[in-house]
Amino acid sequence: MSLSASHLLFPVPHSQIKTGFTTAHAVDVPSIHQVHLSDSALGVHKVSSGTTHTLVRPPVPPSTDSDEHTWDALFPAGSVNPGNKSAPPGGFGFYVHGPPEFARALREEAPREVLMSYAVMFEDGWEWRKGGKLPGICKRPSLAACLPLSVV
């Protein structure tokens, strides 16, 4: 039995999800809002200087949806991460507020838990020991202050 995108990206009982957002086209969860993969729709800010996160089509389309896009992280020779001062910047880094209704829910409801999931693809020959960190939640004094998410 194969799991749906909804269950892979939101691996908790969907009845427990109060609000959320996704850029995945194949997700069908009532409390999850579809958001366009764009800086403005996701509230991207504090982008690491010298890096890009260009929209590209995935090399292996995850679905028949011809409008599917992803961010492309570039790691030039010798790069390690976006903030390394002794090597060329590699990857990308930024913060995400999420769409306005999601950011508002975090501020007003002060949730105790936040779930973040994503899918990544690495090219053949990727050297794991040289990569930067993967996306995660930025911890602040209160969970409401956890947004923005730190995406690297």
TrEMBL record:
Chain ranges of the Polysaccharide lyase domain: 65-138
Any Pfam family hit: Polysacc_lyase_14
Gene3D superfamilies, alphabetized: 2.60.120.200
PANTHER family attached to this UniProt entry: DISAGGREGATASE RELATED REPEAT PROTEIN, PTHR40124
Name of the molecule in the record: Polysaccharide lyase 14 domain-containing protein
Lineage: Eukaryota, Fungi, Dikarya, Basidiomycota, Agaricomycotina
